[in-house]
């Protein structure tokens, strides 16, 4: 899904483009970079081992 980086928020994420993106992705919200970072940290942590 879309991630709202500073650059995207400034240059790309107009209300029209945001509506288009949300219509085409499973998660119906724009993710924040901190959410992606937390996921990456969890994936490399021992807690994620099967």
Automatic annotation (TrEMBL):
InterPro entries, alphabetized: NAD(P)-bd_dom_sf (IPR036291)
Superkingdom of source: Eukaryota
Name listed for the protein in its UniProt record: Uncharacterized protein
The organism of origin for this protein: Talaromyces pinophilus (Penicillium pinophilum)
Lineage, broadest ranks: Eukaryota, Fungi, Dikarya, Ascomycota, Pezizomycotina
